[in-house]
Amino acid sequence: MTELFEKSIQTLELPKVLEQLAHEAVTEEGKERSRALRPMTDPDDVQRALDETTAALQMLTLRGSPSLSGVRPVWASVERADRGGSLNPRELLDIAAVLSAARNARDYAAGNNTKTILDPLFANLTPNKFLEEKITGSILSEEEIADSASTELADIRRHMRAAAARVREVLNKIISSSQSKYLQESIITQRNGRYVVPVRSECKNDIPGLVHDVSASGATFFIEPMGVVQANNQLRELAAKEKKEIERILAALSADCAACKEDIRMNYDLLVLLDCIFARAKYSAHTGGMAPKLSKTGLSLRRARHPLLDPKKAVANNFSLGMDFDTLVITGPNTGGKTVTLKTMGLLTLMAQCGLHIPVAADSEIRVFERVLADIGDEQSIAQSLSTFSSHMTNIVGILNESDRDTLILFDELGAGTDPVEGAALAAAIIESARGLGASVAATTHYAELKVYAMTTPGVENASCEFDVDSLAPTYRLLIGIPGKSNAFAISERLGLPRYIIDKAAARLDAENVRFEDVLTQLDRQRQEMEREKDAARKLRLEIEENSKVSREYREKMEAERQKATDKARAEARAILDEARDAADRTFRELDRMRRQQEKQAADWQTANDQRADLRRKLNEADAALGKRPEPEAPPKTRDAVAGDEVELVKMGGTRATVLSVNKDGSLQLQAGILKITAKQEEVRVAEGPSAAKKAAKTIVQRAEHKLRTLKTSPEVDLRGMMTDEAIAAMDIFLDNALMAHLEQVIVIHGKGTGAVRKAVRDHLKRSRYVKSFRPGQYGEGEDGVTVVTLK
């Protein structure tokens, strides 16, 4: 790095930024390295440093910074230990602090699940917990070694405490005895590491012992009584042993550190490097910095601001250089921000090349330059006989000598300090020469000639710092492509210069300059009007984009709701189909079971129906026997009936009656049930027993009823193929059997056919006193071919 480059770094105030960066570092060496940071010229190195800062910022945001406090330089101590030297407790504790920080940093990185460019740095840390705990367990502080450092040291100190207790015991006896009157104070103190008591000078011979000290006034003698001399001697011997043991312990710990010197040195270097990287990340967080993209053509900064200005007051500007043009000529009024613009451009470039994030928008680009050379400010020197112009020209000569295509040159008030005509011509020539060397140039000026030069030369662009004519105040906005006015007359009038003086000055301007300034004024007004229209269009565009965003979100929401409803409907339909399929499967299985059961019981039911039909036939025969008796032959004549006889009334079909009495005319008074009848002797026949026909019919009925009850009761009756009357009779018998079997529900199978049997069955069921309710069969029961009857 040349002297002129270093001077430009100072001019652009990079050291002030680095001082702020140093405040973010934790370790002392990290602070020094931050202050000594200089721009890198290799694009790969710059990109790596920016990526490191970005990764550290992400980790800082998610997990905070790693604990690096207590890390101090230890390499000199480790080198001395390696040469056989013994380190003091402070040096050993510093080494333990480095090992502890390395272990904590490894643990910090282990909690990060995302791979970053910093992973190799954390992975190369080599913690040594055994050595760390050995040091911290042996050394409590810079002045104190722990008893547990060794068994020998613990034994020595135990004896020392016992010896000290014996000394104090003897001295306490002296203090509490009659000899206390010889003492200046009843206290125990030490002189030269030995326990003594303060004795009044006139009583020094009353307490035999060794005098170790005398007070300044001579009134007090510090005497070691003879009774504790032996104990004090033992304490001195133990203290010497303790010192020797501590030296041995420190030497052993030093040797352990020497054996791990490479790991300790690497840990320290890596911790300091991580400290510097995380300091850059903290600085980026505090300044709101972003990592710029690296470009090979030029720089393009969006919403850039000077990092040393108050971010609440600094005006953000857009800069570009080297993209569409390689030279930027900035004009405008004094105090308008031209110099700040130059410094911002140069300082942000230097910061990015140091690996720092810069306060710009996310889409900004930076080119890596070999040199950033600046001629800014007034460096006149009386001692060196340099005027303002001379000092500027000296810098410019040095800049041109060092410039090439990888140089960024910043000229402030180029050509100032001399004749305006010559200065303008010289300024244009200097810019042209710098462009010829391939350098990128940014220059500020007030010369109208340079404005014209920028307007007429390819690759050279005008820029201006905006000035509000209405308020006569600068806005500090940089406008690319528009030359600026110096506005000297307006500023002078604002500052109180009389109007007539300004008018005289205006009269001295030549017509060409006046016309040029008028053109600039007109252009500026048109620009401001275009700016207002642009702002209105931008607001309208933002409003349209916002409405479009709302519409898009609403459309996406409606689409999501529609998709959700569709998915829900499909799911419900699928569930209904699945349920219907399951229900159908269950129904088919039930039908199959019922079919198998019906096939299994078909033979039994047919047999039962045949038995019922045979029984019905026998009953019909019995009924016919009762209802269709043949005309009986005239019964044989019996004796005349007397009171008390049971007689049969011939004309009443053999109805039996009891003779109550015999009237005088020979007629009989009979009792038949509840009726009293009068009959002649020839109309009755004395009954000797029941009639044979009635006995036979009764026997048939009883046998039929018994057989019907003994039949197996089924919950179904099949009436198919029967006539209506026959079906009704069979159903009545079936219902009697069902009631006797305590069945709650039965099925009457009548078939569909013409519907005559079905109608007769259901009409009869409506009148039956046994039936609670009935209904047609459902799907799987036979539908309208059966009737399901619920009995009372």
Span between N and C termini? 117 Å
Radius of gyration: 63 Å
Helix-strand category: alpha/beta
How confident overall, as mean pLDDT? 82
Quaternary state of the chains: single chain
Taking pLDDT < 50 over at least 5 consecutive residues as the criterion, the unreliable ranges are 380-386, 628-632
The level of helicity is 40-55%
Q: Compute the number of strand runs.
A: 23
Name the beta content range. Answer: 15-25%
Descriptive overview:
The structure is a single chain. With 792 residues, this protein is of the alpha/beta class. It is built from 21 helices and 23 strands. The chain has a six-stranded mixed β-sheet with strand order 10-11-12-8-13-14, sandwiched between helices.
What features would you highlight for this structure?
792 residues, 5-stranded antiparallel β-sheet, 23 strands, 53% helix, elongated
Question: How would you sum up this structure in a few lines?
Answer:
The chain has 792 residues and is of the alpha/beta class. α5 packs antiparallel against α11 (261-287), α8 runs antiparallel to α10 and α20 (724-740) crosses α21.
